[in-house]
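yo

u said u wanted the structure for the complex thing, so here. seqs first:
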Amino acid sequence: MCLAKPLELLTVADDRLSGMVAMGDSSMTVGLDLVPQAKPGDFVLVHAGMAIEVLAPEDAEAILSIYREYLDHPEQVVPEGRPSDD
Amino acid sequence: MIDALYRSKNLVAELAGALTQAAENQPPMQIMHVCGTHEHEIGRHALRQLFPTNLRLIAGPGCPVCITPASAIVTAMHLAELPGNPILCTYGDIVHVPTRSGSLIEARGRGADIRLIYGPREALRLALENSNRPVIFFSVGFETTAAPVAGLLLSPLPKNFFIYTCHRYVPAAVEALASQDEGQIAGYLLPGHASVITGTVAYEFLPSRFGKAAAVAGFEPVDMLSAILSLVRQLKEGRPMVANCYPRAVAAMGNQKAQELLNRVFEINDAAWRGIGVLPKTGFALRKEFDAHNALVHFGLGEIPAEDLMPGCSCHLIMTGRRQPQECPLFGKKCTPDNPQGPCMVGGEGTCRARYLYPEEIYE
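structre next:
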């Protein structure tokens, strides 16, 4: 339950209470209630569908590289935070 | 293979060397973590193998599913089985936690409509999609989970959305543990993501009132080893403090927006922790303004009393560091992840489950 992962915020809804984050090839809506300062392009730390903090991009990148390490062919992974080309 | 920064072999080796050096000629030190994810990550990376022999890290009550009282689970089962065809939604781990009256997953087997969700927003979606049925969100967890719930409750809610909350506040529980401690625990490894909400400031009482070392840790090997090294150095130098070893996510004052939302929605009360008993000021109780969505108020129910301890189970001792999983007669025999007898064997954060999955260390 304490797991949280850094994801790039792609869009912010008009009411600023939610936004869309990229997860590899897919995307997900997350709550932004706790990070009203978050803006598209920021990396947010997402816990249970809610962003709980905004991270520095270099820190987020270092954490994401660990997730990529899980895969045998990290070079083939669509980098998190980038919308897929489909 | 990428040598990721927070998992770098070189950094881990350096930290392990520094840890051994710092602990040299020191008396035996026992430290406690209060985060189930720490236990799992420490086990998964076999970090205890890198510890000097005079350092022992034990698990405290850091698994939110494990400390949820049996009475809350039994009450949630009752809510799910009320007439009127309600939907009860909750997190995946809690449905498998056994009580003497069964578990939520067993209630589902009897026909109750119990849905698993990933986060609070999904509970709201369920309510919007099922406007002719009551949707009850059984929400458990520490402040990391309570803060998003507070945000949700302050947004517009449909009339058929109800919540039954059982949230707990970690700093007050650590304070209760520290005040009962008779010198067994020299320092605390503090939870990373709960501290994102509270900040390090919430734990200042550890060095100032109790003289305990403290360090907030993230969840990668480098994060956890740096925090443990900080604890050992604090003890060696006799200068306890609250070190922030997870600064990329945790600020000293925490997420103040989250704290504001928590204060608007909840008031702090004394609350029960499974098998441990009532700990002062550790509960988040819904304020009266939210009665219209408070499941207990709406359905006119009180919490149903239930016995926390399962027959033969040692979870209450394991959650307070007084026993190790391997010392429980049920561990790995009658009690396994497939057939858990107590809460600590159930979830992704339970100490027994972690020790069962990563059995590299044998405590003598």
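Strands of chain A lie at 5-12, 18-23, 26-31, 43-47, 50-55. Helices of chain A lie at 57-69.
cya
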